[in-house]
Amino acid sequence: YLHIVCIFSVADRNGDKGWFRSLFVHTVDARKDAHSNLLSKKETSNLYKIQFHNVKPECLDAYNSLEAEVQHRLHQDQDFPCEVVGSWNTWYGEQDQAVHLWRYKGGYPALTECLKKLNNNKEYLEFRKERAKMLISRRNQLLLEFSFWNEPLPRQGPNLYEMLSGLLLHPENDMSHNRARAITYRQENSEAVGGFFSQIGDLYVVHHLWAYESLQSREETRNSAWLKEGWDVNVYYTVPLIRSMESRIMIPTKSSPLQ
User: Fold this and answer.
1) Is the pTM for the entire model greater than 0.85?
2) Which end of the chain, N or C, is more open, meaning fewer C-beta atoms within 10 Å of its C-beta?
3) In Å, how far from its chain's centre is CA 156?
4) How far is CA 118 from CA 77, 79, 81, 111, 170, in A?
5) First to last CA, the chain
């Protein structure tokens, strides 16, 4: 048998760290602010909530009608500091799923105020009981808005919407520069709707929301990006930082401000 003995120097005479010790000791670059503060918009204090409701297939139409009625009433009532940004049903992706995006103007205090009022609203509590009969499961996340994305505003339709949701592999790496450049490559038809990252719920998740006239226009838009100088470099540096990515193609409900 051949025996190989490797001897590593842990420290030299001056006490400096050797190569072997450097395998186990890592330096961390100190941040001067929270990662969320570095990425989110400074000029607004909006907080977003995204809801994913998995609906019993036979109840989807009744669910959409009930949800639309409640959203309308909340919009009419100025006492609630919240508004629905968009509501959709998933077409391709997880089936029989409803997705709602809410905005709370005023951040966490507005969210807390709204929840307190809703929990004391008998009509809303009855709505929740009725809605629960139609659901298989539900989950949500609280989100902040990327500083370099458009603020989601109502738009005319008809449009299809794609939500790209990704889990970051290396959340400590700042992807904001590459993501900001990516928006400029995909704005020919104002298809960029909004971009968000999670604060509560599943962490290190980003959501990019796009609008297209059709699946064909989506294909053409994505292909045209590869013809622009710099897009390939942007993809090269961004993709390795993503652990997983999910695409949903969604159809807006009749009551959605984003049509």
Assistant:
1) no
2) N
3) 22
4) 12, 10, 11, 11, 38
5) 73
